[in-house]
Amino acid sequence: MSVGADTGDKILPGAETKRGVDVKRGLRNALITGLVTFGILLPLIGFQTTVNIRNELILDTRPWLLAVMVALVIAFSLITSFVIAPWAQHRAARKSESTSLKAAARRAAFAKYVVPFALGFAFLFPVFSIQFAGWQGAVKWIDNFGIQILIYIMLGWGLNIVVGLAGLLDLGYVAFYAVGAYSYALLSQTFGFSFWLLLPLAGILAAFWGILLGFPVLRLRGDYLAIVTLAFGEIIRLVLINWVDVTGGYAGISSIPRPTFFGIPFTANEDGFAAIFGLEFSPLYRTIFLYYVILCLALLTLFVTMRLRRLPIGRAWEALREDEIACRALGINTTSTKLSAFAIGAMFAGFAGSFFAARQGFISPESFTFVESAMIVAIVVLGGMGSALGVAIAAIFMIGGTEYLRELDLLKAVFGSEFDPTQYRMLLFGGAMVLIMIWKPRGLISTREPTAFLHERKMIAAKFVKEGRG
Amino acid sequence: MLEGFVQQLVNGITLGAIYGLIAIGYTMVFGIIGMVNFAHGDVFMVSTFVALIALVILTSWLGMSSIFLVLLIVLIVAMLLTALLSWGIERVAYRPLRGSFRLAPLISAIGMSIFLANFVQVTQGPRPKSIPPMVQNGIVLLERDGYQVMLSYRQLIIWLVTALALAIFWYVVAKTSLGRAQRACEQDPKMASLLGINVDRTISITFVIGAALAGVAGTMYLMYYGVISFNDGFVPGIKAFTAAVLGGIGSLPGAVIGGLLIGLIETFWSAYFSTDYKDVAAFSILAIVLIFLPQGLLGRPEVEKV
User: Fold this and answer.
1) Torsion angle, CA of B188/B190/B192/B197, rounded to 10 degrees?
2) How far is CA B115 from CA A271, A427, B45, B119, in A?
3) Is-contact A156 A380, C-beta < 8 A?
4) Considering the entire predicted model, what is its pTM?
5) What pLDDT score does A55 carry?
6) N or C, which end of chain A has less CB nearby within 10 Å?
C-alpha cells in the first residue's frame, strides 16, 4: 500500500474491527443514532411554529412525521451495520492495488466510447425531445434540461481551470458570471450592441475582473483563498443590489435584447425567423437556437481547456496545483500562472453570463448568490477535479436531477396534491454534496491521465494525485 | 455627539458579544483540525429556532411567567440540542473525511450548511418568525439635552450571559483535563494519541463546546432582535468567521476580541456611513485581514515547510 496516504481512521484504535457482523454493536449504534436523531429533530420536525390570525406565534405538533423520520434513520443505521458494512469489508479485502489500477484502465476505455456517444446525443437532443415530447412539450425539455444543464457544464468546465487544473479553490466564481450577465444587459440596453459583439466583450470584462480580484489573493492558499474569493463574490453581489442607479438593485434589469439568428430576430413579425424561412411561428426555434449556442460555447470551453493543458501554461497550472514551492524552485512565475488561470476561468464565466442574460431576458442579483457558486464548485469537485467528463456527469446529475423533481407526479400521489417537490431542491442538493463527498471524496472520476509521460501513457490512481491543495 | 457615540459603543459591544460567541466555534475547530467549519453559522441559526420553539412551549403551553426562569431553561435547551446537532454533524459529515484531501471537509461543510438552511426552511416555513420583546426597559447611563444613552436590560443580560459563558468556557479549556487534552490535540494530534488521548473524542468535544456557545449566541440573538429567519445563518456566520480570523484563528481570546471589534466596526459603520453597505464593510474587512494580516491580531504566523 502507499505510504502516508492512509486515511486517519486506520491508525486509530478501535477501527480495526474483526470480520463479520457484530450484532450487539450494530444494535447499540442504531439505538444511539435513533436517540440522537430524536433529539435533533424533536424541535425542528416535532413542532412547527406558525402565525395565527392575531399574528401570534403558535405551535403545531407533528408527532407522526417525527416518528417516521426517526424510524427511517434507525432502519438506515441497521442496514448500514448489517448489510452495507460487511459487504464493503468483503470487497475491500478482495481488492488490491493492481486491480484498482486495472479498473481505472477499464474505466478509461469506457470513457473512450462514452465521449463520442455523449457528443452525438448532445447534438441530437432537440430532435429527440421533439420526437418524444411533441412540438409543445419539447420547449420545456430543451430549455429546462438541455440549456440549464449545459450552462452549468460550461461553468463547471470554466471553474475546472481554476480549481481542477490550477488548484485554487474559488468560492466566488459566480461573481464573474454576474459580470458577464450585467455587461451584456447594460451594454446592449445602453448602446444597442448585438449579442455576438457583446459575447467576447463580456468575456474580456470578466477576465479583467478575474485579474483584478485574483491579484490580491495571490499569496493565499487553501481555505483562506476560498473564503476571500467568497467575500469578493458577496461584495460584488451586494454592490449590484445597492447600486440602484446602474443595476436596478433587487429589481434587476428586464427586457434585455434577445439574441438574433445572424440579424434575424425570433419574433412572429414579417421579418422574423419563422416568416423568412417560411415556417409556422413557434417559440421553439429560439430555444433550439439557444441550445446550440450554449452547446457550442460549452464545447469551446472544453476544447480550449484541453488544448491549454498541453501548452506550457497548462503544465504550469498542474505543477502549481501539485506543489507550489517546487514550482517556484523550477522558475515558474507563480504570479502570472495563477492570474492566467483566474482570468481564463473568469472569461468563460463571462461568456456563460452573457448567454444567461440573453436567454432569460431578465437578470437580478438573486441569480448570483453564494449558493450558485457553491453549486458550481460542488459540480467540479464531485465530478472529480480536473476531469472534464466527470464534471459533465456531475452537472447532469445534480442540475438535471433537481430539475427532474419538478416532473415527479409520483411524489404528489404519495404525499398529497399540495406537495411541492421544488422546495426540496436545495435540501437534496446540500445533502447530495455531503453524501457524495463521503462516498467518493475525490469525485466521481478520480483517476488522471498525465499530459506528459515517458514511453507509454499510464493511468494514475486518485491517491497519487495531490489535487486541490490550493 | 458624545451621547450618540456611547450609545453606539453599547450597541456594538452587544453585537460583538454575539459574534464572539460564534467565533469561538470557528476558531476552536480550525485550531484542532485545520478546517473552516462552514456549517457553524447555520448551526447558530438552528439554535435560534430551537430557542424560539422552546420559548413558545414554555410560555404559551406551560404558561410560565417568570422571564428569568424561562430564559434560563431556553438557554439550556438551546445549548444542549445545538451541541447534539453539531456532534451529529461531525460524526456524519466530517469524521469520515478526516485524512482525506484537504478540501473535502470544506466542501462537505458547505453542503451541510446548504442542507441545514433548507431543512429549517422546509420544516419551519420560509417566512421570518417574530416574537414580542421578552425584556423591556433599561438603565439610563447618561442623559444630556434630552438625549438618553440607554443600556437596555436585554443588552445587560447579553453582556452578563456572555461573560459567564466565557468564564465557564475559559475554566474548561484552561483548568480541566478535558481542556488540556483539547489543547494537546491542537498542538500535535499524533503525539497526543500516542500519549493515550482519544483524539476522535476530543475533536467531537471541540465541536460540542463550540456549538454550545453558538447555542448561547442563538438564544441571545433571538432575545435581542426578536426576529429570526432560516437564512440568518450565512451572514452572521461569515462575520463571526471574520472575527475569528481578525483575532487570529486558533486563538481563543483572539476570537472574543475579534468579535467585539467586528461588532463595533459594524455598528459604527451603520451609524456614521451607510446601513446598505454594512455587509460590504464586513466582507471587505475579511478580505483585507486575510490578505494583509493572515495570522490575525493574536495568532501565530503559519510557517510553510517543504
Assistant:
1) 140
2) 49, 5, 12, 6
3) yes
4) 0.86
5) 72
6) N
In a domain, B47, yes or no: yes
Does B73 contact chain A (CB < 8 Å)?
Answer: no
Please check whether residue B158 lies inside any domain of the structure.
Answer: yes
Place of cell 485579474: A211
Quick one: how far is CA A292 from the chain centroid? 21
Min Cα–Cα distance to chain B from A230, Å = 9
Total domains, chain B: 1
**Torsion sign, CA atoms B282, B284, B285, B287:** positive
What ipTM is given for this predicted complex? Answer: 0.86
Which residue segment(s) compose the domain that B122 sits in?
2-232
Burial class (CB in 10 A: 0-12, 13-18, 19+), B122: middle
Rounded Cα distance between A379 and A10, Å, is 29
DSSP assignments along A158-208, one per residue: HHHIIIIIS----TTTHHHHHHHHHHHHHHHHHH---HHHHHHHHHHHHHH
**Contact predicate A344/A161, CB 8 Å:** yes
Q: For chain A, list the domains and their CATH numbers.
A: 8-94 (no CATH), 106-464 (1.10.3470)
Q: In whole angstroms, what is the distance from residue A215 CA to residue A338 CA?
A: 9
Alpha helices in chain B (DSSP H): 2-33, 40-56, 67-89, 104-124, 153-175, 177-187, 189-194, 199-225, 234-247, 252-272, 278-292
A321-375 pLDDT tens trace: 888 888 889 998 988 999 999 999 999 999 999 999 988 888 999 889 888 898 8
Measure CB to CB from residue B36 to each of A223, A377, A469 and give the nearest one.
Answer: A223
Reported confidence tier of residue B17, pLDDT bands at 50, 70, 90: very high
pLDDT at A423: 77
Does a structural domain hold residue B243? no
Model pLDDT, residue A417: 62
- Residue A37, C-beta contacts closer than 8 angstroms, at least 6 positions apart: A69, A70, A73, A74, B88
- By three-state DSSP, how is residue A14 classified? coil
3-class DSSP assignment, residue A59: strand
B111:A437 CB<8 A: yes
Dihedrals phi, psi of B108, to nearest 5 degrees: -60, -40
Which comes out higher in pLDDT, residue B221 or A143? B221
**In this complex, do B104 and A441 lie within 8 Å of one another by their Cβ atoms?**
yes
The sign one gets for the Cα dihedral A166, A168, A174, A180 is negative
Low-confidence ranges of chain A (pLDDT < 50): 1-18, 467-470
- The span from the CA of A259 to the CA of A197, in Å, is 11
Q: Which pLDDT belongs to residue A462?
A: 58
Q: CB of A223 within 8 Å of any CB in chain B?
A: yes
Residue A448 DSSP symbol? B
Query: Does residue B186 form part of some domain?
Result: yes
Contacts of A27 (CB under 8 A, 6+ apart): A78
List of chain B residues whose C-beta atoms are within 8 Å of the C-beta of residue A437: 93, 97, 104, 107-108, 111
| Contact call for residues A380 and A164 (beta carbons, < 8 A) | yes
Half-sphere exposure of A29 (CA within 13 A, CB side): 18
- The burial of A34, by beta-carbon neighbours within 10 Å (0-12 exposed, 13-18 middle, 19 or more buried), is given as middle
Distance CA B83, CA A40 (A): 9
* Greater pLDDT, B180 or B250: B180
Does an H or E element contain B149, and which? strand B147-152
Q: What letter represents residue B60's amino acid?
A: S
Q: Give the pLDDT score at B162.
A: 92
By DSSP bridging, strand A47-51 and strand A57-61 are: antiparallel
Which of A47, A56, A415 to mutate to probe the B interface, most B CBs <10 Å? Answer: A47
Instruction: Identify residue A57 by its one-letter amino acid code.
Output: L
Taking the C-alpha atoms of residue B287 and residue A80, their distance in angstroms, rounded to an integer, is: 43
Quickly tell me which residue has 488522471 as its cell. Answer: A448
